[in-house]
Amino acid sequence: MHKTGLVELKAVLAVARHRSFRAAARELDMSTSALSNAVIALEERLGIRLFNRTTRSVSLTEAGETFVERVAPAVADINLAMDVVNLRRASPKGTLRINASSGAARRILSPVIVDYLRAHPDMEVVIATDGRLVDIVAEGWDAGIRPSAVVPRDMVSVPLAEDVRFVVVGTPEYLAARDVPATPGDLARHECIRARMPSGALSPWEFWRDGKSEAIDVPGRLTLDEPNVMLEAARSGFGLAYLADKNCADDLKTGRLVQVLGDWMPPAYDLCLYYPGRRHVPAGLRALVELIGQHRRRR
Question: Is the CATH number of domain 6-90 1.10.10.10?
Answer without folding.
Answer: yes
